Amino acid sequence: MAKGHRSQIKRERNENKDNRPSAKLSYARVSVQKACYVLDAIRGKDVETALGILTYSPRYASSIVKKLLESAIANAENNNGLSRNNLYVAECYANKAPTMKRIHPRAQGRAYRIEHLTSHISVVLDER
C-alpha cells in the first residue's frame, strides 16, 4: 500500500505517465488475429507510409486502424504540438476483448453457438 496523502499518491502516479500521443479503440468488431496482420504491416513506419499501406490494404481491419491512426496523428498535432512529418508508429497492438455469444438455429430444434470476437486496438506514436 502506498504511503502519503491521496493527492501525493496521484502526483507520483502521474509523473510516471507515458506522454507519447496515442489513440485507443475499444470493442472493435474484428478478431485480434486479423487486426494483428494489419498492425504488423505498419509498426515502425512513419505515419505517411503507414497511411498509404492502410489505404490500399484489402483487409477489413485496415479501415478501422486507418481511422485510429488518423486520430492519433490529430492528438499529436493538437494536444502535444508535434509536427506530422516527424511522427512514426512506435507501438501498435491489439488485445482480446469480450466475446459476443450468439445462437444460430439448426435442424431438429438444435442451436449452434456463434462467437463474435472483439478486440481493443491501440496505436502509440513517437517523434524521430
UniProtKB/TrEMBL annotation:
The keyword RNA-binding applies. It comes from Eubacterium cellulosolvens (strain ATCC 43171 / JCM 9499 / 6) (Cillobacterium cellulosolvens). Belongs to the universal ribosomal protein uL22 family. The globular domain of the protein is located near the polypeptide exit tunnel on the outside of the subunit, while an extended beta-hairpin is found that lines the wall of the exit tunnel in the center of the 70S ribosome. This is Large ribosomal subunit protein uL22. GO terms for cellular component: cytosolic large ribosomal subunit. Keywords: Ribonucleoprotein, Ribosomal protein, RNA-binding, rRNA-binding. Part of the 50S ribosomal subunit. One of its GO terms (molecular function) is rRNA binding. The gene is rplV. Pfam families: Ribosomal_L22. HAMAP family: Ribosomal_uL22_B. The keyword Ribonucleoprotein applies. Residues 1-24 are annotated as: Disordered. It comes from the Bacteria. Residues 9-21 have a biased composition (Basic and acidic residues). GO terms for biological process: translation. InterPro entries: Ribosomal_uL22, Ribosomal_uL22_bac/chlpt-type, Ribosomal_uL22_bac/org-type, Ribosomal_uL22_CS, Ribosomal_uL22_sf. NCBIfam families: rplV_bact. Gene3D superfamilies: Ribosomal protein L22/L17.
